[in-house]
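One such shown below:
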Amino acid sequence: MKQRFFIVLALLVLSLVCFAKVDPTAAPQHYNYRDASKQMRRVYYGELQETLYCGCRYDDKKNVDFSSCDFKPRENPNRKSFKRAERIEWEHMVTAHNMGHFLSCWKDGGRKNCSANDTTFKIMEGDMHNLYPAIGEVNGDRNNFMYSQWTNNPEPMYGNCKTIIDFKGKKAQPREEARGIVARASFYMEKTYGIKLSNQDRKLFEAWDKMYPVTEKECERDRRIFKVQGDHNPFVHDKCKQ
């Protein structure tokens, strides 16, 4: 009789665990890109509500404050891309193309197919260590271009924003404040997912990593991502502990 009681009690406890409502935002985990985008508010708030490429502030509704960074859209107000300048998008520092072009799913349908059907790509695409808020127009202009550095006196393309794009050369030069960030994100993606860097990129990113060391904001970003996603970027976290 006593044994039967404990069996019933155990089944009752198990059923409560199974059917209890769990807040999905409370458990650290990796998300796909769509869900990761929704979780970004848990990382980017307060002092971190600033764009990667231009340092512009934005509000909780992701409206960009152009006056905070003296930003001016590159395109004519009637053009579609001008509308992108007014909103925040989540930029992949290591591009989706660079993450997925070697996968079979990419050959059979590009990013859309990989996002829908490839588990590994879904995790890579939604990894918060590789995502950063960017003004939509600049994100679109950067496209799949690789990072580079070719001038110390960039001619502004977006008001006072120091990030520039070479459309003919298919390359992007981020402002100085972003260079260490994109370098350490690239190292993380290589270490975590095996996305190999070219020798040229490695030399550039190693130089940026040294020239533009980890800041307190970058450390705070890493701590917040850990609370949401459950892991650190060791190329940031290890330096934050020093």
In short: The chain has one domain: 25-240. Residues 150 and 173 are 7 Å apart (CA to CA).
